TrEMBL record:
One of its GO terms (molecular function) is RNA binding. NCBIfam families: hisT_truA. This is tRNA pseudouridine synthase A. The active site is at residue 52. SUPFAM superfamilies: Pseudouridine synthase. It comes from Eiseniibacteriota bacterium. It is an enzyme of class 5 (isomerase). Its EC number is 5.4.99.12. Formation of pseudouridine at positions 38, 39 and 40 in the anticodon stem and loop of transfer RNAs.
Length: 243
């Protein structure tokens, strides 16, 4: 058996998330359906990130094993024919036999986009909060999250059990053409963690001391102390790191 790595990009708007679910259109389900058809065998994939309904990806990674003799470089073109317009395999390669897209990952990088105002073009890929916000105050709110912390206060219920201690490798806000975006990378993320950080940062940014307000939520370890969960359309999985 050979082990393959696929780099995958998708517009998550019409998908019920990454993970296969009976009777629902998911990215993993569509990918496995087309792989099984092209390779003429039952294929099961492993995804590096289990993105939720409506969440996008530029840098999702999937792995699978197959007995096919087809060269890896042929897969993107072969798969494109049967996949919808909202998902693409951007690269394919043969990997070491023990490569697992999820377990082999060392870090993931996400991006969340905020809009200054409603935008007909960007509305599928960014969120416009009801209240105006200040980018400098958002940056002040999140500057204390870098490093290793217990992120329980930003963890939604219902996710897979995993340690709440995450090592935030980098986090920061920057201006983009239609608003502000948050870039953050960590060794692992908790369920809805990025979206809860965004919602809480917005709430903290409207206080007299955004940094202290955000720090108080972090140290409380209580989700009830945080802000609202930002909607999914602003979130994108940008990169999975393996070394």
């Amino acid at each position: 058996m050979r082990t393959f790595r696929l780099d995958v990009a998708y517009d998550g708007t019409a998908f019920h998330g990454w993970q296969r679910q009976p009777g629902l259109r998911t990215v993993q389900g569509e990918l496995e359906r087309q792989l099984s058809e092209v390779l003429e065998e039952d294929v099961k994939t492993v995804g590096a990130g289990r993105t939720d309904t409506g969440v996008h990806a530029h840098g999702q990674v999937a792995s699978f094993q197959s007995a096919t003799r087809l060269p890896a470089r042929a897969l993107p073109h072969r798969l494109e024919r049967g996949l919808g317009d909202d998902v693409r395999v951007t690269a394919a390669s043969e990997a070491m036999s023990d490569f697992d897209a999820r377990r082999s990952a060392r870090a993931r990088r996400y991006r969340y986009r905020l809009l200054d105002a409603e935008d007909v073009l960007w509305g599928r890929f960014a969120w416009c909060p009801r209240q105006r916000f200040d980018g400098a105050a958002l940056a002040d709110a999140t500057r204390g999250l870098e490093g290793e912390h217990d992120f329980s206060a930003f963890r939604a219920s219902g996710g897979a059990p995993t340690s709440p201690r995450c090592h935030m490798l980098s986090i920061g806000w920057e201006r983009w053409e239609a608003g502000w975006r948050l870039e953050l990378a960590a060794d692992h993320f908790l369920y809805h963690m990025v979206r809860n950080i965004v919602g809480t940062a917005l709430a903290a940014s409207r206080t007299s001391d955004p940094h202290a307000a955000m720090r108080a939520v972090l140290e409380s370890r209580e989700r009830s102390r945080g802000g609202e969960t930002a909607p999914p359309q602003g979130l994108s999985l940008e990169e999975v790191r393996y070394a």
